[in-house]
Backbone:
């Protein structure tokens, strides 16, 4: 009994055993939790990829086509222009359609037809008398006339013999009479070519399908109009965007759905791919915990041995009375916690800064504007968009496009930063500038200085010229989305008026 009470090793080993058992339980719980967090993080990344692919790529193309189609239909509705082009001077009408076609890179051909089925097709492939337009999927009959744009399902074009999808609109005169139909036949191969440059976050297949599951846009042109997903799975995608797991193929489907047209942006990733990444991350943590457990055991044995040695030395010192050689019980504390402040600063910077342009990012924009609005601090907002940026990417490549983004941002930072004005990358080739109260009056002058610096800049690439257009408006105590809409409208007007200019909107 006395030896047990005086034993150092028993309580030490018992305590170490409890610590080790607790460590193992905690390690297992952390690994399981980290695996779940890793899976959730991968799902979030994949959903964001689909969202960006839908909003920044697909939706922009659809809006551009809708915009041109609406204005073209309004033109042909005036002064009986449609019948004059189809039944009158067809050469002039064909030339007019070809001029329009040159403005729309995503359209392969244009058809225009009157209510009797006579039509004109540009570019001209064969005699228009060989086909009656009233039999085509895009022809609008009297009972179907409406003011909206429509999309066809995929079908075979009789003139070209190629599968296509058509966006069409009734041409209705100001007096309400149906004059005919204007149709844009989409060049799906060229529209899908841009998808080849898109880098997905992990190995998978991404594409855009119609309601029947047939590929409308795909990085590989050979996959167009082939079934990429079953209609049964599409029927389960009943929300605007989300994710769906298919047990039969062990595949995750991330999707974003459009209602007009009824298209789906799909990102297909094997469940094994996601599980492998999450497992790899968990294994790294598991090996770390295993190493720590081995170290705990080794140091526990060392502590037990040291305690026995110290006790023996104390007993010998008591027996011999030799205090000169008595052991000195020195503290054996080691540094276990290191400061992580610098790492935290790095994380904060990465979370609020855009790596490509060194501007603040969209998250910082939302936070800064929310703070100004909550504090009722007056400010002005500018939205800046690089002119013809898609053409720059298509002509000089995306690497030069990134160089243009960096240098345009650098010109703005050099002007705005010394004034204490923040510059943000709002999205793609679009920037935002927040002018605090002290700089509202000279906001336009600062923007003009930035615009002139960019317009006058000499670029390494021959014939490369870069300009931007901007809209500027002052906050008028309205919600942020309304202010952004007003400024964006000014930006749109600047683009429409010829680009390379800044429009300032007044209070409403």
Residues:
């Amino acid at each position: 009994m006395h030896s047990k009470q005086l034993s150092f090793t028993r309580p030490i080993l018992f305590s170490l055993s409890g610590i080790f058992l607790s460590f193992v339980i905690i390690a297992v719980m952390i690994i399981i939790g980290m695996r779940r967090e890793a899976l959730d993080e991968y799902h979030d990344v994949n959903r964001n990829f689909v969202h960006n692919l839908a909003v920044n790529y697909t939706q922009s193309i659809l809006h551009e086509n809708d915009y041109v189609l609406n204005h073209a239909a309004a033109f042909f509705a005036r002064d009986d222009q449609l019948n004059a082009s189809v039944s009158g001077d067809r050469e002039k009408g064909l030339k007019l359609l070809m001029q329009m076609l040159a403005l729309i890179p995503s359209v392969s051909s244009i058809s225009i037809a009157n209510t009797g089925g006579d039509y004109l097709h540009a570019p001209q492939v064969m005699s228009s008398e060989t086909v009656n337009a009233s039999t085509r999927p895009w022809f609008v009959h009297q009972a179907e006339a409406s003011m909206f744009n429509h999309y066809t399902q995929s079908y075979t074009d009789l003139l070209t013999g190629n599968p296509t999808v058509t966006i069409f609109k009734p041409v209705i005169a100001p007096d309400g009479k149906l004059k005919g139909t204007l149709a844009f036949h989409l060049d799906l191969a060229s529209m899908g070519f841009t998808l080849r440059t898109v880098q997905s976050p992990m190995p998978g297949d991404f594409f855009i399908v119609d309601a029947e599951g047939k590929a409308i846009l795909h990085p590989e042109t050979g996959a167009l109009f082939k079934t990429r997903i079953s209609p049964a799975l599409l029927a389960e995608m009943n929300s605007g965007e989300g994710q769906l797991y298919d047990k039969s193929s062990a595949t995750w489907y991330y999707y974003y759905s459009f209602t007009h047209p009824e298209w789906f942006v799909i990102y297909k990733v094997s469940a094994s791919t996601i599980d492998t990444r999450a497992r790899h991350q968990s294994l790294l943590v598991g090996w770390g915990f295993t190493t720590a457990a081995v170290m705990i055991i080794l140091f526990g044995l060392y502590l037990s041995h040291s305690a026995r040695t110290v006790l023996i030395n104390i007993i010998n010192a008591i027996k011999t009375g030799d205090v000169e050689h008595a052991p000195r019980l020195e503290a054996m504390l080691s540094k276990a916690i290191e400061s992580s402040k610098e790492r935290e600063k790095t994380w904060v910077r990465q979370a609020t800064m855009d790596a490509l342009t060194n501007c603040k990012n969209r998250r910082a924009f939302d936070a800064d504007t929310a703070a100004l609005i909550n504090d009722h601090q007056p400010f002005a907002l500018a939205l800046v968009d690089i002119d013809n940026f898609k053409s720059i990417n298509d002509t000089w490549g995306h690497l030069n496009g990134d160089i243009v983004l960096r240098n345009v941002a650098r010109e703005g930072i050099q002007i705005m930063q010394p004034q204490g004005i923040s510059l943000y990358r709002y999205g793609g080739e679009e920037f935002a500038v927040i002018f605090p109260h002290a700089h509202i009056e000279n906001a336009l002058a600062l923007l003009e200085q930035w615009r002139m610096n960019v317009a006058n800049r000499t670029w390494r690439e021959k014939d490369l010229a870069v300009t931007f257009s901007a809209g500027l408006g002052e906050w008028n105590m309205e919600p942020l989305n309304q202010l952004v809409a007003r400024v964006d409208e000014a930006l749109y007007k600047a683009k429409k008026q010829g680009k390379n200019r800044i429009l300032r909107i007044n209070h409403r």
About this structure: The longest strand covers residues 178-186. The first helix runs from residue 2 to 5. Residues 342-504 form a domain with the Alpha-Beta Plaits fold (CATH 3.30.70.270). The CA atoms of residues 120 and 127 lie 9 Å apart.
